[in-house]
Write a structure and sequence with these properties.
- By secondary structure, the protein is mainly beta.
- Helix content is 5%, strand content 43%.
- Strands 15, 16, 17, 18, 19, 20, 21, 22, 23, 24, 25, 26 and 27 form a 13-stranded mixed beta sheet that branches. Strands 1, 4, 6, 7, 8, 10, 11, 13 and 14 form a 9-stranded antiparallel beta sheet that branches.
- The two termini are 24 Å apart.
Length: 562
């Protein structure tokens, strides 16, 4: 197969924040741009690295190259970005398109050719720059819902020459937004050992009262020592009810800037530090992400553009101040919160801590914990600060604290399975307790009689067993059926315990490319691939779960050949 060659001179140069081209990229879709998610929005363990553009609840909307360029990377995966495409442009920027239904034209042909060569749906490709060139306005793909997407949309990114995601709205995208940011929660945190807020040593949630001018004012508070303030906020655009993230948040004390967060650009290397930036424990309990307007140790986030005393405020008795928060969206709509603070100290009875059943874990060195047949290793710098953990075990269950403290690196959980037979060992795995469902599978490694798994989340883990093979059933055909009018061949594949690991399908002994949608448990073959050449066809599908149980499905079907 030959692909069109277009000689384009590419250069990668340094582009400063002050020299961002605002008329270089056109919009990637020709429908109105309405967002389901914006840049920097707070997500699970990461900041959102692009824009989620609504596609009118449809798949198959054409995506157009916003500028000349070449295909730098293609990745097809079951999870994450699903079907993703990466273009490099002559000005050094990279654009990314994720959750696609399919690629456009010769790009789709190239991907399928490589998938058949590898006999694998999942694939990652890095074509030579001259192989797949595009011109501005070319169709490069079609929107979909592939990967870890919750509904049809286009995830669109613009990255700089160092592959750092940037806010696409900086490049001239015009999205209607006349709504002021919304405030949900304001919290005040005692930080220093002697600090208190309203006579308490614990963080305090403040009552908000909306003013006639649209601003907010909290109750007056009394505080002593070093304190910090946090806010939960979101923004909405015209024509959409989605709760998007803030663009800028500034705090001021008596009119002087104290802290400034600006969502213009960040690196993927720092994105998991979101868990240090938010009040992680409060989020896990209340499902509300409070952004802490202060920088604690082990928080290197570059979105923090200005800070005085790391954003902390130190209050003394008799001292009063006015703390102000400004939340600003990209269209400069603004919401202001005013917090009157009076310096005052109360007598608080000492409450002794009962740490008799707790395990101390240092954040700056490795920690090994053994409980029963379980052992846990937490590497240095996995925690953002020292912690006291509640760790207990009971036969095959390990209660490893609770998911209220964030982990930045993987810890390793191991289990001594010396009492199990070789046959049993092959069906065992380490999983996380999942309420009334089977334990959630974690990739389990075997070293003799020792099982181990890696995780970045505290919680309850168990030694689980899966003896049940996957289930395969046809959806749009039956054995010995004529299906000449079918456009696809569809099967349901399920494994309710450890989950599906691999699948492989053949027709008349030859590999066929099937696409697995794990969200619907559906495996699909598209007859447009033109692998089917015979009237009588023998289908064979093998599905293997995560502990090695397998199921084979075989059927015969007939098609008229034109």
């Amino acid at each position: 197969m030959k692909y069109p060659f277009l000689c384009i001179l590419f250069f990668v140069g340094f582009v400063s924040a002050q020299n961002i081209p605002t008329d270089y990229f056109s919009d990637p879709l020709e429908i109105p741009i309405i967002l389901a998610g914006n840049f920097g929005e707070l997500r699970s363990n990461h900041f959102h690295s692009g824009l989620d553009i609504k596609t009118q609840q449809k798949r198959g909307v054409p995506i157009y190259a916003p500028a000349d360029g070449f295909v730098k990377r293609i990745k097809v995966a079951h999870f994450g970005y699903g079907k993703a495409l990466y273009l490099t442009h002559p000005n050094g920027y990279i654009t990314v398109y994720a959750h696609l239904q399919s690629y456009g034209g010769v790009i789709e042909d190239y991907v399928k050719e490589k998938q058949y060569e590898k006999e694998s749906y999942t694939i990652e490709l890095f074509p030579e720059p001259s192989l797949l060139t595009v011109s501005k306005g070319d169709i490069i793909g079609y929107t979909g819902n592939s990967g870890s997407s919750g509904g049809p949309h286009l995830h669109y990114e613009i990255r700089d020459s160092s592959s750092r995601p940037m806010n696409p709205m900086l490049f001239g995208m015009d999205i209607d937004d006349a709504k002021d940011p919304i405030v949900n929660t304001v919290m005040v945190y005692p930080i220093s050992g002697d600090a208190q807020v309203n006579g308490a040593l614990e963080p305090q949630k403040l009552r908000l009262k909306k003013q006639k001018d649209g601003s907010y004012r909290t109750e007056g508070i009394e505080a002593f020592g070093t304190i910090g303030v946090g806010v939960s906020t979101n923004d909405q655009h015209d024509g959409a009810s989605n709760k998007n993230g803030a663009y800028q948040i500034r705090s001021m004390v008596n009119g002087e800037e104290k802290f400034h967060v600006h969502f213009n650009r960040f690196s993927f290397a720092e994105t998991r530090y979101l868990n240090r930036y938010i009040d992680y424990g409060y989020y896990k309990k209340n499902k509300i992400r409070i952004q802490k307007l202060f920088r604690q140790d082990n928080n290197p986030l570059s979105i923090i553009k200005n800070e005085v005393d790391n954003g902390f405020l130190t209050m003394e008795e008799g001292y009063s101040s006015v703390y102000t928060i400004e939340i600003i969206d990209f269209k400069k709509n603004k919401t202001i919160i005013t917090i009157p603070i009076k310096g005052a100290k109360s007598a608080i009875p000492a409450t002794p801590e009962d740490n008799a059943f707790m395990t101390f874990v240092s954040h700056n060195q490795g920690n090994s914990i053994t409980k029963g047949k379980f052992s846990v290793y937490i590497p240095a710098e996995s925690l953002y600060e020292d912690a006291m953990l509640m760790v207990t075990s009971d036969v095959d269950t390990l209660k490893l604290h609770e998911d209220a403290i964030p982990l930045h690196k993987n810890m390793t959980i191991s289990f001594d399975a010396s009492n199990y037979t070789k046959e049993d060992m092959s069906q065992l795995y380490i999983g996380k307790s999942n309420y009334n469902k089977p334990p959630r599978y974690y990739t389990t490694y075997r070293n003799g009689k020792k099982l181990s798994a890696k995780t970045k989340t505290f919680g309850t883990y168990v030694l689980a067993r899966d003896t049940t093979p996957p289930v395969i059933s046809p959806r749009n055909f039956t054995d010995e059926q004529w299906i000449s009018n079918n456009e696809t061949l569809e099967l349901t594949i399920e494994d309710v315990v450890s989950g599906i690991s691999t699948y492989h399908a053949t027709l008349n002994g030859k590999f066929i490319l099937t696409e697995y949608d794990y969200k619907k448990d559906v495996l699909v073959y598209d007859f447009d691939d033109e692998v089917v050449k015979d009237t009588e066809n023998k289908l064979k599908v093998i599905v293997v779960d995560n502990v090695g149980n397998s199921t084979t499905f075989e059927a015969t079907f007939y098609r008229k050949q034109l």
